[in-house]
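Pilot study result, target chain (373 residues):
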Amino acid sequence: MRRAACLFVVLTLLFPACCSACLWDSDTLEQERYRFPEAHQLIVGDFVRHSEAYYRWRIEDRLAKPIDARMPMDYDDVAVAYDKLGQQDKAIETIHEKIRRFSSQSVYESEANLGTFLIHAGRLEEGLVHIDKAIEINPDAHFGREIYQKLLVEYVLLRRADGDEGLPLATSDGENFVTFLRDRLAWKPESEMAEKKKALTGVLGMMRFGHYDSPILLEALGDLLMSQGRDANQLAAQAYLRASAMADDRDAAAAYFSKAGQALESQRNMKLKTLQKELTESVHKANEKFAQIQSDEQAWAAAGEDLDQKFASKYYEQPLLRSASLGVVSLGQWLGQYAWAAVFVLVVTAAIWGMIRWLKADLSAAQGNSSNS
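Predicted structure:
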């Protein structure tokens, strides 16, 4: 009996997570980043992208061509540049001009872009019509990103059906984006995790190629990360904190801050202020990197260079940047994340096996003593 009690104590020491809240610290956040590398980059803005100087140059460059020499892609380039500069009316006007000239060419691109510009302009219902047409033409384009763009817009419309246009869209799990997707798509339990990953990929795509610092996208990302299990909670909290920083009004900022706190409730060793400090430092470093891109593109434009060629040569040819954008994890990162777990499993297995043999020997000895007596 004493040995059995001893076994229980040993197992309790070996599996403390079963007896108390999980221990989470800054190292846990690093492991979350390895599992969702692109999520962290997009939350803080640490990824290669163009500055406003580039988009102004691109408009001037494409429009310098005679009208008869302009191709469908030229119109797409100009329209997207206007959208990136916040000039949605000009973006919409440019796409309509493209459709008039090339009504039967690159129809998918026209519908997808027009729908996106309308959504960015706040004309959500009109935008959905064109997103639906784009999905009908090519449902698998961009890894199905338009499908989740459509679903997110439908979710926004649902949450604002009562006239409340405030943020966050939801303050409880029962009303968040994941719950909406589960009900809307009728997820089955056996495929739910795979569906969540598809949705996560879709939202990350919208952030990378759209407005990565949109509070609505950050909120949707946080909701999806929270649904991935406890090993994504700190990233979810960072997404909500970033949404809080980007929100326009104080009430929304406070509500997002509260959501971040709720995401950390099960994590004993991580305080919200500590996480907020780490996030601020990461955003600062990302801004410094982007400042270099801005400086480069401004200098190239002033020198009359081809910004497409210069940017591709300097930034798209860097292996580390390309690997990061694809979410590739190196062998060293993988070992750093999982080697300790393998060692832990081996130690626990050996300890349990030793205890079992010990108990068997004890029982045999007890039976032998009983027979002799």
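One observation from the pilot: Confidence is low (pLDDT under 50) at residues 4-35, 319-340. A full batch analysis is planned for the follow-on phase.
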